[in-house]
Amino acid sequence: MKLSKSLFRLYRNTIFMLPAETAHSVSLASAEFLYKSWLKNMFIADRQSMPNKLMGLSFPNKLGLAAGFDKNGDYLNFDNNIGLGFIELGTVTPKAQYGNSKPRIFRSIKDTAIINHLGFNNKGVQHLKNNLQLIERNQPIGINIGKNSSTTIELAHEDYQYCMKEIFSLADYITLNISSPNTSRLRELHSDNYLDTFLHEIKKTHAELTKKYKKRVPLVLKISPDIQDNDLEILCRQMLNYEIDGVIATNTTIDKNLLIDKSYLNNKGGVSGKPLFKKSNILIKNIKNLVKDNIVIVGAGGITSKESAVEKLSLGADLLQLYTGLVYFGLDLIKEITRETK
User: Of all helices (H) and strands (E), which one includes residue 249?
Assistant: First the structure.
């Protein structure tokens, strides 16, 4: 283990010489090449099996990959074989889009954090659909969907409905991302002004697709850590009203004051990693108090150790997701958490 961690630190120090977005692409392209090659068996991780039945799905263990890590399903041979209990791909939109201008990802190493201002850059839902048809999965795969930047907030539901129709037959669950801080006005979907209409339209399409495919696909909401208490109460009430299956707490935060490194204070985008940990934990605890055991809670934000994973579970999370922790600590973090977290 110590040798493995030392090698990863050497690799990380080298790859961190590249711009963050380039480093991410290079790392995953290299990993996917290895996991598709004849060398694959040397790298496949032994999955720690602690089966969980939630939302009608069987999860081999409680730790999953957060959306954003593999937006387009381009690295599924890698994702599928690193010991996780589930994978979430996306965020994808109906049409491919470039996202916000570069540079748009920054590492705050002092904070063990990432600041991203990507803006739902992706190759479109059809590209992801094509990739999903080629993979034999060995754990649930969720699809995280959003709206194109050119779509107004009033018509946002149409983009989500389009994506649902495209990937319904291939998704184990579908996440409605209404919380990215990098798409203009998206977080307004949290508010009572839009949420009721949005969920009404989504559930209508969900019922139609369930009937068409004779398959029930759970619906999950990914929410913001910056939501106000009043809006959180409304949100939880609406999730219960519309029988939403799960909630991911949380997406990134726009609160840059959480950063030790003040050179990023004026950067646009959301903060993930350690600075998000306590803020997302507060949301988990509050949501649990509001929804009890009626909605599955997926804890995300700042998981960088076994202890941080256990804390989220103790506050009410049923499942966990990580992303930034993998960037800073590598695949050994998956082993550490899944071996010890029950």
Answer: strand 246-249
> What are the backbone angles phi and psi of residue 108, rounded to the nearest 5°?
-105, 90
| Sole residue written with tokens 């934000």 | 301
pLDDT-derived band at 1, boundaries 50, 70, 90: low
Which pair of tokens denotes residue 182?
């990098």
Question: Is 60 exceeded by the pLDDT of residue 191?
Answer: yes
Q: pTM of the predicted model, to two decimals?
A: 0.96
pLDDT band at 51 (very low <50, low <70, confident <90, very high): confident
Would residue 150 show up in a list of annotated catalytic residues for this protein?
no
Catalytic residue among 27, 149, 179, 180: 180
pLDDT in tens, 13-38: 999 999 999 999 999 999 999 999 88
Terminal-to-terminal C-alpha distance of the chain: 21
pLDDT score of 7: 86
Please report the DSSP string for 41-108 in residue order: HHHPPPPP---EEETTEEESSSEEEPTTTTTTSTTHHHHTTSS-SEEEEEEE-SS-B--SPSP-EEEE
In this structure, what token pair is assigned to residue 4? Answer: 């493995």
How many Å apart are CA 31 and CA 37, to the nearest integer? 10
pLDDT tens, position by position, 198-230: 999 999 999 999 999 999 999 999 999 999 999
- DSSP-H helix ranges across 182-331: 192-213, 229-241, 277-291, 306-315, 324-329
Residues 247, 242: Cα–Cα separation, whole Å: 13
pLDDT of 46 reads 77
Q: 61 and 85 in contact (C-beta within 8 Å)?
A: yes
User: Considering only CA atoms, which of 286, 296, 333 is closest in space to residue 317?
Assistant: 296
Q: Is 293 left (phi over 0), alpha (psi -120 to 50) or beta?
A: alpha
* Pairing of the two strands 270-273 and 246-249: unpaired
- Please check the confidence at residue 88 and state whether its pLDDT lies above 80: yes
Q: Name all domains of the chain by residue range, CATH numbers in brackets.
A: 2-340 (3.20.20.70)
**Cα 68 to Cα 90: distance, rounded to the nearest angstrom:** 6
